[in-house]
Write a structure and sequence with these properties.
heterodimer, A: 189 residues, mainly alpha, 2 domains, 61% helix, B: 129 residues, alpha+beta, YaeB-like fold, 41% helix, 22% strand
């Protein structure tokens, strides 16, 4: 087998090896101009549906599904995307962010959206004791998963200086958790 | 873990020749575009066997041949069907680009794919030995 090879993140990365800057730019624009169609195709594949099956569910022809999956972003209608995604049992969410939003700001944006969702879950559960318990459980689970994910990320980023946290809440702790427990701060080294 | 792409020396050599031979046709970009679509489906966590499209041909031993069909981008001339042969290794999440060719070279391309897989199995075997 060939000796250790360069691993490319994607085709744009790979193409840099073969083309000059001008051709690279043109190619990247070409690839980017079909991201919606590519995403739809990936979603259909994940759902395990053939074009024919999706067409029947969406009330479209197979030819139309194929056209959608190869369309440029500019040529897709919101109506077609809605029909396609609905046939896969998916909801379409449309959001707006500043052009060229820096990755660091994307992280912050997602963080605030996450907190909003968690707050909304708590609000919706108010007044129903059972729902309140479930909502509280979910918040602890979410915190557990998020913190573990972040710690894993930090370990990759700074493995030498990472120390294990003093306390991690696990889901088995949640059943004995009361409202008063929720007010307790979890401390880390 | 994200999928990544690795190219064999054979692919690198043949792709350079392919681009030179089809300089103004844009065929190389159409092939890479479909490759990008296939890679995106892999990144979504779908098993390679379950990704089906008109431009994906399932060859023996898990090899896939990706052709240039389907794109709305126009190409010059009446190009022959070309194929990019890849092997998706689900264990390592590496999509190997093995070789590239057209209808005329199909037989030898498939042979190259088999050689690649044989070599790959030998290497994995010696890694674990």
């Amino acid at each position: 087998m060939d000796s250790k090879k360069t691993a490319y993140r994607g085709v744009k990365d790979l193409f840099k090896e073969y083309a000059n800057k001008e051709e690279q730019k043109e190619f990247e624009q070409f690839i980017d101009s079909q991201q919606i169609a590519k995403t739809l195709f990936a979603l259909r594949s994940k759902a395990g549906k053939t074009q024919k099956e999706l067409a029947e569910k969406a009330g479209m022809t197979q030819s139309k599904i194929s056209k959608i999956e190869h369309a440029f972003n500019d040529d897709l209608s919101v109506g077609d995307i809605l029909k396609y995604s609905s046939a896969l049992g998916l909801q379409l969410h449309i959001g707006f962010t500043p052009e060229n939003l820096a990755l660091v700001n994307q992280v912050k944006l997602h963080w605030f959206q996450l907190l909003e969702c968690l707050d909304e879950i708590q609000k919706l559960s108010e007044g129903d004791k059972e729902m309140e318990t479930e909502a509280r459980k979910f918040s602890f689970e979410a915190a557990n998963n998020i913190l573990n994910g972040l710690l894993e990320h930090l370990t990759k980023v700074h493995p030498e200086n990472m120390q294990k946290p003093a306390l991690l809440v696990t889901t088995s702790d949640i059943e004995s958790t009361t409202k008063e427990d929720c007010d307790t701060n979890i401390a880390f080294n | 873990m994200q999928w990544c792409i690795e190219q064999t020396d054979l692919f690198a050599r043949k792709f350079k020749q392919f681009r030179k031979k089809n300089k103004h046709s844009g065929l190389d970009k159409l092939l890479l575009n479909n490759l990008d679509t296939y890679l995106k489906a892999l990144q979504f966590g779908t098993s390679p066997q379950k990704i089906n499209a008109g431009f994906i041909h399932h060859e023996p031993n898990g090899v896939k041949a990706i052709d240039q069909k389907g794109s709305r981008k126009k190409v010059s001339g009446t190009p022959k069907e070309c194929r990019l042969y890849v092997f998706p290794d689900s264990d390592s999440k590496v999509l190997y680009l093995i070789t590239i060719g057209d209808k005329n070279s199909q037989k030898s391309d498939i042979k190259d794919c088999c050689s690649f897989l044989d070599e790959s199995r030998k290497t994995k075997g010696s890694d674990h030995g």
